[in-house]
Amino acid sequence: MSAPRTTLRRSIAAAAALPLLAVALTACGYGSDSKDDDAKKGHVSAGGKKLSADTVKIGYFPNLTHATALVGIQEGIIAKELGATEVKPSTFNAGPSEIEALNAGSIDIGFIGPSPSINGFTKSRGKSLRIIGGSASGGVKLVVNPEKIKTLDDLKGKKIATPQLGNTQDVAFLNWVSEKGWKVDAQSGKGDVSVVRTDNKVTPDAYKSGSIDGAWAPEPTASKLVAQGAKVLLDESTLWPDNKFVITNIIVSQKFLDQHPDVVEAVLRGSVNTNKWINANPDEAKASANAALKTLSGKELPADVIDPAWKSIQFTDDPLAATLDAEAQHAVKAGLLDEPDLAGIYDLKPLNKILKAAGKPEVADAGLGVK
């Protein structure tokens, strides 16, 4: 594998994921805290043999776009594949903090958005992580104050929130603005549209106070704003081929992958089985995800938030590699990312082995896989 030619610019060294994404209950978390969730259901299977590792440490965000992890751990589906190997989950409110945990060995496998995946890979010159599977697509919307903004053209001169400078939603919005022919300075957010970087956890209050006119936001933040009277003006999925784009990947420490491939395969089988169960039982899965969120955050999402949010997210084993590459190019165009070499960021061989055994079609790495 060739080493990346350049790394992310210092200005977005702390950029998080599509989101991406965000805080406690958003598509990407922002904050630096993690929390060990050791008293949860399904951490050790009732039977089965121990694999090559005693434990596997899995990181994810407490939000709906990470429902594969929420449900897979809540229902014991991932633990079932691991036998006597223990699952040790940790939750994060930030992509950068999860990458730091992966680099430090505090977690082995993580559910995370494309922007921090790219960031972690390029900053380590291709040595820290691999993307080994997909988890979710979609779940991002442009929501606005309908009294101030009635059409897309009305966004000019308005204040629109994104979760963080250089995060997945921020890059997507800057790219959309550029496609409109409008000018915005990526660093300051000033221009034909004012881009206001606002943590998802405070975006609803910012909207309520009138300090922002809308947001390009992940779920469930978007639906929280709609519950406050905002209107969905654009669903980002409509901008992508087949209405699909990666919002959550599964990454693994290269060291852990090399030392414990059987454990990695087991977690991937659990993820594939979880996604299958979610898609076959959407109402039960939604309730399971909400129960997990209540355990993690102390409260569940109300129906008028979780119902529309859940409908906008697709759970998929496909990492949608071509869309990650496109997102990287959008960041380059916005001036937030030097041209990266992403060769080797994917290792989909374990996933494709599992999919083939299950009679499912294999997934592609868009030419960015290990050789």
CA-based gyration radius: 19 Å
Order of helices and strands: EEHHEHEHEEEHEHEHEEHHHHEHH
Rounded average pLDDT: 88
Structural class: alpha/beta
Q: What would the principal axes of the Cα set say about the shape?
A: globular
Number of strands: 12
Question: Would you mind describing this structure in some detail?
Answer:
- There is one protein chain.
- This protein has 13 helices and twelve strands.
- It is an alpha/beta fold and 371 residues long.
- The strands form two sheets. It has a seven-stranded mixed beta sheet with strand order 1-3-2-4-11-5-12, sandwiched between helices. Strands 8-7-9-6-10 form a five-stranded mixed beta sheet, with helices on both faces.
- α5 links the parallel β7 (159-162) and β8.
- Residues 1-42 have low confidence and may be disordered.
